[in-house]
Specification:
By secondary structure, the protein is of the alpha/beta class. It has a single domain, classed as OB fold (Dihydrolipoamide Acetyltransferase, E2P) (Beta Barrel), CATH 2.40.50. The chain has 3 helices and 7 strands, in the order αβαββββαββ. Strand 1, helix 2 and strand 2 form a beta-alpha-beta unit.
């Protein structure tokens, strides 16, 4: 009986831990309304546009990509949201240059407003 109870309690904690680390699916408008709510989490946001002019960061956003990463312009439905999004050089090769593309992105939201894109769909 003790072993069964131990197994059940262990399974409960393992499932809760796995659920806490899962990727949260968020609508773009919901994210724009309260981006600080997602700080430190990995989230997926649908229906954003990767702009073709990925060379310059907005002037009012402090966005300095780490080495091996580059800035990417992401357009949200809410035009007032300005965030810094960076992407690894290898993942950036999968972006079709020269045109705007509607995508779903998965990224790690950061306290310093430098969001690192980990997947593009």
């Amino acid at each position: 009986m003790k072993k069964l109870l131990f197994i059940l309690i262990s399974a409960f904690f393992i499932l809760n831990s796995a659920n806490a680390q899962s990727i949260e699916l968020v609508d773009a408008n919901t994210y724009c309304n309260n981006p600080t709510r997602y700080n430190g989490k990995t989230i997926t946001v649908k229906n954003v546009i990767i702009k073709s002019n990925n060379n310059t960061a907005p002037a009012n956003v402090n966005c300095k990509p780490p080495q091996g990463y580059r800035f990417v312009t992401i357009e949200f439905p809410n035009p007032t949201y300005l965030g810094c999004f960076v992407i690894s050089q290898s993942l950036s090769n999968s972006i079709i240059s020269g045109r705007d593309t509607r995508v779903t992105i998965t990224f790690k939201s950061d306290l310093n407003n430098i969001n690192t894109i980990t997947q593009i769909q």
